[in-house]
Design goal:
Structural class: mainly alpha
Number of helices: 18
Number of strands: 0
Shape: globular
Family: Belongs to the ADP-ribosylglycohydrolase family.
Enzyme class: hydrolase
Keywords: Chromosome, Cytoplasm, DNA damage, DNA repair, Hydrolase, Magnesium, Metal-binding, Mitochondrion, Nucleus
Largest sheet: none
Order of helices and strands: HHHHHHHHHHHHHHHHHH
Radius of gyration: 18 Å
Mean pLDDT: 94
GO biological process, one term: peptidyl-serine ADP-deribosylation
Pfam families: ADP_ribosyl_GH (PF03747)
Helix content: 55-70%
């Protein structure tokens, strides 16, 4: 499925991924943990209104975007994963704008890191939850820039970078393995040619094969969910409802119950959705990801980053882009991240 992508298209995909993540975060946040059944009509009307240019409202981003931009800025500056710099950026961003929706457990990590002057940047996260660490989706939600910047790297080196970035806040295997899966999904979408026929079963099988080499056999929630998605497509169940997906794959703040859902949302957006009359596959991805309910901003943000990496910026409706806070700044960072990645690619590092 992977192919050589022309540089002009690759830049479009970088921009699509970063903007797609922002859109999912901004548009998903107002629906976070709303009851799916009562909010679905509201969601349909809301997105349709936005797509038709019927709103001038600007939607703010959350901690998801704050941390994603911190990762991008650090990569642009250092041309590699610098965990101490990342930890400082995460903490600085939190104390600058603590109202962005940060979870209390990650705040504890930030406060401990600051109090110890970043002496051991991995220790605060390692000590959480009786030293088992967090298995939430906070590492996965911010990982897209690493997939973009390191698209030229082998999976082995990419996995190392993802773990280093993740363990600052998420020490549990399910926390950083979820980030690894999200990173691999973004990379696979980035490397795919959207002008050619897409095989969702092959896409899932390739991800599952890679995760089988990463997860422990007796504890492999991501492989199990990917197998579940594969079965959905093999049984021609593409019309399965968002409520059923929430039950089968999950929709909460844990990585294992949100990353697979984001991946499925990307795949589901490729075909029409009966209750949401829209011809644009990116918009359908965002709609479905939010309609699953639960942690909507993070699930939609992750789904948007995968879809954006696949379709590129040209396929993302400007009506959605313009409704997001910080859109121009995020797009500018995407350009800089692309330039930094190209510089490293030419050096043949990784």
């Amino acid at each position: 499925m992977a192919s050589e992508i022309p540089n002009s298209e690759l830049l479009s995909k970088f921009r699509g991924c970063m903007i797609g993540s922002l859109i999912g975060d901004c548009l998903g946040a107002p629906f976070e943990f709303d009851p799916p059944r009562t909010s679905k009509i509201v969601l349909e009307n809301h997105l349709s209104n936005l797509l038709n240019g019927g709103s001038i409202q600007i939607f703010p981003f959350t901690d998801d975007t704050c941390m994603t931009l911190s990762v991008a800025r650090s990569l642009i500056k250092y041309k590699k994963v610098n965990s101490k710099d990342l930890a400082k950026r995460f903490v600085d961003e939190y104390f600058k704008e603590p109202q962005r929706g940060y979870g209390m457990h990650v705040v504890d990590v930030f406060e401990a890191s600051k109090e110890t002057n970043f002496k051991d940047i991995f220790l605060p996260a390692k000590k959480q939850f009786s030293s088992s660490g967090s298995y939430g989706n906070g590492a996965a939600m911010r990982i897209a820039p690493i997939a973009l910047f390191g698209h030229y790297k082998t999976d082995k080196y990419l996995k190392r970078d993802v773990e280093e970035c993740s363990r600052i806040t998420h020490h549990h295997p399910n926390g950083y393995n979820g980030a690894i899966l999200q990173c691999l999904a973004v990379k696979a979408a980035l490397k795919s040619d959207s002008s050619k026929e897409f095989d969702p079963v092959d896409f899932i099988r390739q991800l599952k094969k890679k995760m089988e080499a990463i997860e422990v056999k007796d504890d492999s929630p991501f492989c199990e969910s990917l197998k579940n998605i594969e079965e959905i497509y093999l049984q021609d169940q593409e019309d399965i409802s968002a409520n059923e997906i929430a039950e089968r794959l999950g929709n909460d703040v844990s990585a294992s119950k949100s990353v697979p859902t984001a991946i499925y949302s990307f795949l589901r957006g490729m075909k029409p959705i009966s209750e949401f009359e829209c011809l644009n596959p990116f918009a359908r991805t965002i709609y479905f990801a939010i309609s699953v309910g639960g942690d909507t901003d993070t699930i939609a943000g992750m789904a948007g980053s995968i879809a954006g990496a696949y379709y590129g910026i040209g396929a993302i409706p400007t009506e959605l882009q313009e409704r997001c806070e910080f859109k121009d700044e995020v797009d500018n960072l995407a350009h800089k991240l692309y330039a930094a990645s190209q510089e490293m690619t030419s050096c043949n590092i990784g």
